[in-house]
Write a structure and sequence with these properties.
The structure is a homodimer. Chain A is of the alpha/beta class and about 550 residues long. Chain A has 19 helices and 19 strands.
């Protein structure tokens, strides 16, 4: 690749160097010149219907590929991705938000240029709240260094960053001899060694160690090392709603999802009776902790995070999860002979009954045997996610869900990002009717770029997660004929499903139509819900 | 009405007291208890598909009714209305954003509660950037006063405000004897009187005075006084893109839209040759000024705004547009006998030609005679708006458009807000295919609440405003079969239109289906554009 000559070039080259191959977005006049540069670059522009879709798609892309990018115009585009960026922040997804902006030469005397809110830096100030680093590239002397700084922050912290690009800066020349600079987080070797020694002693003297595998294992690319660690030690593993599929759920040491009183009881019993809890990059969120029904004794915990390690009630600063995990792999940890740890329920071969009304429970059991190693499940907020918790995912990182921030509308656009990030995958989207009505028309984008998600719409006429908490008309959702959407989009196949056999037929056909979007409108009773959701909403409702 | 007993009650009563009858939104668990209170109140909850739709609907509602309200949940809901709130800020629309939030009792030790981004006050900090006043109702002692303060700010400044309502505060009792407090902007009578005297002298000694009527005349409810002023003085009036329809465009003194080189030439010539420009509440935005092609000489201007009055090169602080206008009505201003001011083109009675391909020019000319006194035109960003500039609007405030902030996706959800604000109106929505794909599915909300917009989709396969600036695949939009949407929504009528006679038939039927949503998919050539847009994009393109 030729050396970058302009600020726009340089930004594109750095995104490419860190693995991005696509940029999601919607153009606008302040961003047009950068879109024009993108079009002739080695990054492909993916146009979504709305910026919100671009934001969610870039988030999913980042989760699968390690870095995502979204490009929008000033304010009318940027502020539409405030929520998707907040989700990327909350759930540690490294998304680079690039926003066009009025040229610095257009700002003299602060004119009322279109798309301006209050001041020229209003959007920058908003994004300072919801990103880990941000910059406005208004100075050619520092632009390259600023690009390096914020992209490095995204990669170090696995959080979104914001780059504002005034349109007159896109083609400004950069220093020809500028070399990219990389920074890294501070690291304390003494603290690391002491932590490893202490952890070794605790683990080796424990009777019943357990690992709770958290999402940071995935975000920091540590899944291989983690597998080596459990294969070496044979310590059983649970994951959490947010980290579901951080390892293959067919792994013999995988017990299932731990989520306090909300998960499977045998997993909870096993975890909470452990005398040595090893938490690896786990987020201690309310949903991960089953709305705080979890009983995890800090006095028995080793808790490694991306920035520090906690053992019992003391802290080792500047010890990263990665260094801790790689270190402990070199440490002499006893191998356990065999364990009595629980396992996920084995797959059931269901016989669909013709004419029998479909239930959520049946649906998830059937989908559990439908998925394979090339399926990536993308679950939206609500029973789409809760019901899927007990599915058994074949390979690591084949389940994506906003299980902490819990923004509705993620799944359909996320399927676009996931499949572009890895074309070998076929997304299985699980989405409620409420969430589908927010962003589901991004199927148009899937059609435009020849993607093939299978979309299961849990059509229960409303916000099913909220009904058991506090119901009212405000939880109702208008009924759409979802199976007709392929006619509107002039692409894909639609299925209207009320019974077990109709589901069976639709799944078989969806498997055959390998290149098509398949929309399965699964009509379930508005009172039907998964057992997991039943338990979850009871815990939630206490707070309303 | 019984006196309010709780914080939730009080907020509802104050919204009602200031004219709101509907609240737009999407529920979520942190907002459920307030939604529950709303449901049993005298405000009707309007559920939209996505929060973005609620934000735009509330903005349009505020423009028609004087105050709008949107209610959402914490972060995942609130941050989705960041852009719509920014638009309300930029274009002075008083929208109250109410967001649920975790209870103050849930925040001890800063737990990772779902929907949280960084800190508990992250969303508040974001909204501080894009509202004129904001508050978190975390103290029962000050909650009522805070509600008064921010709602007053919305009404004084005609800007959006933000109220965060922790869920445990909704039913907290308030002081039984609390009385609402109102504040007002500072006012300087001496400055007012001097300004009036000076203005009178200048106007009466001028040869060719002209008024540019701005949007603040509408926002501050001054249209009646303004009409009295022009009827008394016979000074001719132009309006701007943002203030289009601030007076009836059939008024004999109305010349048309002034927008520099982009508008009709005879209006420009008349305005720019005036020796006394009276700007009443006009926003000096780039679009209003025709991308700064306007030549308005400050040395010949009297410029009254909501906060101060400028005469030539000096300023009268603390003199409001309202006081200035009411004062000048009492002042002895000469009545002009007759003028040579231009007028909008008279309506053309078109004969549709069977089979003749439709053009943008024909479409707008035909729509110009289709609209009547009960039509409110709602134009989205792009040629939907530019093309409509030369339509002649029958009554004041019957044209709504984001003609400054220019966010795409406004029109369809805005039509919901406008029709609920005034059920006597039938919205005529003008929207490009790009903007429709962002929020057009909010037609579902229109169907749910029995509304009847006529939606004209300018289907030209892309972002038509951008093509002449800088074109590429990024300006393409996927083709949908828009006329099939009524099948999906199980409501309304769809029309596929390629020719003049097809348009004619669809318009006639739309007029008959008075209670139905009508979707007119008008397929135009991707190179076709209105003359206004042609001139506009030439001015824009210089900046790219």
């Amino acid at each position: 690749m030729a050396a970058a000559k302009t600020i726009g070039d340089y930004l594109i080259q750095r995104l490419h160097a860190h693995g991005a191959r696509h940029v999601f977005g919607v153009p606008g006049d302040y961003a047009l010149s950068f879109f024009h540069e993108l079009e002739s670059s080695n990054l492909q522009v993916i146009n979504t219907c709305d910026e919100q879709g671009a934001g969610f798609a870039a988030d999913a892309y980042a989760r699968v590929k390690g870095l995502g990018a979204v490009c929008v115009t000033y304010c009318v585009g940027g502020l539409k991705v405030a929520n998707t960026t907040a989700q990327a922040f909350a759930e540690k997804s490294p998304v680079v938000v690039i926003s066009g902006a009025p040229g610095t030469n257009e700002r003299i005397k602060s004119p009322l240029l279109h798309h301006k809110v209050r001041d020229f830096d209003t959007q920058l100030k908003v994004f300072e709240q919801i990103t880990i680093a941000s910059t406005a590239l208004d100075n050619p002397q520092t632009a390259c260094r600023e690009i390096d700084r914020v992209i490095d922050a995204a990669l170090c912290h696995k959080r979104p960053v914001y780059i504002e690009l005034p349109r007159n800066m896109v083609s400004v020349k950069i220093q020809p001899d500028y070399l990219p600079q990389e920074t890294s987080l501070p690291s304390d070797d003494n603290a690391l060694n002491e932590a490893l020694l202490e952890a070794k002693t605790i683990i080796n003297t424990s009777k019943k160690p357990v690992i709770i595998a958290g999402i940071e294992l995935h975000r920091y690319g540590l899944q291989d090392e983690f597998l080596q660690f459990i294969d070496k030690t044979h310590i059983p593993v649970a994951s959490t709603p947010l980290s579901k599929s951080v390892i293959s759920e067919h792994h013999p040491l995988h017990m299932g999802i731990y989520e306090g009183a909300i998960g499977r009881e045998e997993v909870r019993d096993y975890v909470e009776s452990s005398d040595c809890l090893i938490l690896m990059g786990t987020f201690m969120t309310d949903i991960n902790l089953g709305m705080f029904t979890a009983h995890l004794d800090q006095g028995r915990s080793i808790y490694a995070t991306s920035e520090k390690v906690y053992i019992h009630y003391h802290t080792y600063e500047d010890v990263s999860l990665g260094n801790f995990l790689k270190g402990i792999l070199q440490t002499d940890i006893n191998k356990r002979e065999h364990t009595d740890s629980p396992h996920p329920e084995s797959l059931q071969q269901l016989q669909p009954v013709a004419g029998k009304t479909i239930t959520i429970t049946y649906l998830y059991q059937r989908l559990n045997s439908f998925i394979d190693r090339n399926t990536v499940i993308i679950a939206d907020t609500g029973d789409a996610m809760f019901g899927a918790m007990d599915m058994t995912i074949h390979k690591e990182t084949k389940f994506l869900s906003p299980a902490y921030y819990a923004s509705m509308g993620f799944a359909v656009p996320a399927s676009i990002g996931a499949q572009l990030a890895n074309p070998n995958l076929r997304p299985l989207v699980l989405v409620g009717d409420g969430a589908f009505q927010m962003t589901g028309m991004e199927l148009s984008t899937a059609a435009r770029y020849d993607l093939s998600p299978i979309v299961i719409i849990l059509n229960n006429s409303g916000y099913g997660t909220e009904r058991p908490m506090l119901d009212g008309c405000f939880n109702d959702v208008q009924t759409w004929k979802y199976s007709g959407l392929p006619d509107i989009l002039k692409a894909g196949r639609g299925f209207s499903i009320k019974t077990e056999d109709q589901l069976e037929d639709a799944l078989q056909l969806s498997r055959q139509y390998t290149k098509d979007i398949c929309v399965l409108d699964v009509q379930i009773d508005s009172a039907d819900r998964s057992l997991a959701l039943e338990r979850m909403t009871k815990a939630f409702a206490k707070q309303i």
